Amino acid sequence: MSVARIARRIASPKKAFTTAAVAAAATGMALTAAPAHAATTASPSEAKAIAKQLIPNATQYNAFSKIVEHESGWDVDATNPSSGAYGLVQALPGTKMAAAGADWKTNAKTQIKWGLDYMNSRYGSPVGAWNFWQANGWY
């Protein structure tokens, strides 16, 4: 059984890693440690609170929120299975968000900053992005 398959079959991430490490060691494979980053994945309510702090204008926040709700349901880890778009704002590719921070995969604040910058640069504002989204079903 592959290490990846073992990891998928176990619900607990800690147990999955331990089991994967044991399986890797048993088969002569080596697992390398990833850089140390704090786990910063935010709940939807935490992500919304962060966005409100970063977007104090209610109209702009509401437009941003509508896009994020449609795109990811405020799930920092959301991944579109067909396109690979990732995160709150469904960046494509998700690695684009690295421009806002190395913690782009798990940090709601980093994803929100990137998404806000994207909306401002491409559409003039979150309201402009929401207007485009309403007309096209994407932004």
Textual characterization of the structure:
This is Transglycosylase SLT domain-containing protein. Residues 59-131 form the Transglycosylase SLT domain. It comes from Streptomyces pharetrae CZA14. Keywords: Signal. With 139 residues, the chain is mainly alpha-helical. The protein folds into 2 domains: 1-33; 44-136, Lysozyme (Orthogonal Bundle), CATH 1.10.530. It is built from 6 helices and no strands. It has helices at residues 3-9, 13-26, 44-54, 58-72, 108-123, 126-136. Helix 3 crosses helix 5, helix 4 packs across helix 6 (126-136) and helix 5 packs across helix 6 (126-136). The chain is globular, with a radius of gyration of 18 Å. The relative contact order is 0.12.
Task: Present the secondary structure layout.
Blueprint: H1 3-9, H2 13-26, H3 44-54, H4 58-72, H5 108-123, H6 126-136
Helix pairs in contact: 1-2, 3-5, 4-6, 5-6
